[in-house]
Amino acid sequence: MLRTLKTVALAASLSLASTMALAAKDIVDTAAGAGSFNTLVTAIKAAGLVDTLKGKGPFTVFAPTDEAFAKIPKADLDALLKDKAKLTAVLTYHVVPAKVMAKDVKAGDVKTVNGKSFKITTDKGVMVDKAKVTKTDIVASNGVIHVIDTVILP
What we know:
The chain has 7 helices and 7 strands, in the order H-H-H-H-E-H-H-H-E-E-E-E-E-E. It has about 150 residues and is an alpha+beta fold. It has a single domain (about 25-150), classed as Roll (FAS1 domain), CATH 2.30.180. The protein has a 7-stranded mixed sheet with strand order 2-1-7-6-5-4-3. The longest helix has 22 residues, at about 1-25. It is globular.
């Protein structure tokens, strides 16, 4: 009986540690682990924003998927990835300097880390400029990710 209780306690401890490790992933690690944001993670690295998005935050990232980046012609995407200033402007336009869960999203203009604002509409599902939010509330240790289907431009 004592051995069974120890085994159950150990399993519970390992499960809790595993859950805490998953919750401890920051925005960058969460995006990298998802498997559908490879281009975004590559862009974050190219722009030198890894340390920023691993920082304390909180951040809300409206994250374009690989399919969203694929809508950009290859030559244009390659040029963007090589232009650090423009790339940084585009990426920081996808980031809000606060943790905004889906239940808290309201229609209107939202100021981004870029300094410019984008428009959120909610009449035909949640839209960020012309991008549709397809998945919400992917929680990270320093904020939250909402998935969008199009790269938005400042």
